[in-house]
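Example with several molecule types.
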Amino acid sequence: SQQGEEDPQALSIQEGENATMNCSYKTSINNLQWYRQNSGRGLVHLILIRSNEREKHSGRLRVTLDTSKKSSSLLITASRAADTASYFCATDAAGGTSYGKLTFGQGTILTVHP
Amino acid sequence: EPEVTQTPSHQVTQMGQEVILRCVPISNHLYFYWYRQILGQKVEFLVSFYNNEISEKSEIFDDQFSVERPDGSNFTLKIRSTKLEDSAMYFCASVYMPGNTIYFGEGSWLTVV
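Resulting structure tokens for the full complex:
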């Protein structure tokens, strides 16, 4: 798989349920960032997790990072219809001079039914 | 919260025409980027810009593309002679220093006909 691959590609749940999206990557990273994109709109930053961190929380969002497995997960608890969007992980690769270039995955399309 | 702003939000252009997409990054940010997203595909890196020069570019960013920071606030992407395959959403992004949150604009939809 390519750097920053999300799994599943699509997720459909009911309001109130939790949604978990996974991201795998291939190279060592400085950090991993999760973004949300409503259809045809811009990329909204959700959480940044650094390579020396294992878990971060922000409101209903929980992100974990396992650098030994080169994977991350995004958990949205108590989902709402307004959470319907595409979610992307993006990695800032380690090594060399970092200018902050991000490599994005294909994304997970989350649909939350009212 | 400060934001990256982009204009135009949507542009339709004839194949072979020049296009300039404009961006105003967040004011104290030092690193600037352009990315693009072809419909239904992943977001792809085009170029990064720091200290008034290109610091990194992808193989997509060929001689038809150029970037400029003409003044202290604007950051532009120029496509000299557009092709059909340049049709995409173009995102501008900025960050104060790599390793921090990278903020993206709302994007500019470019349709080449």
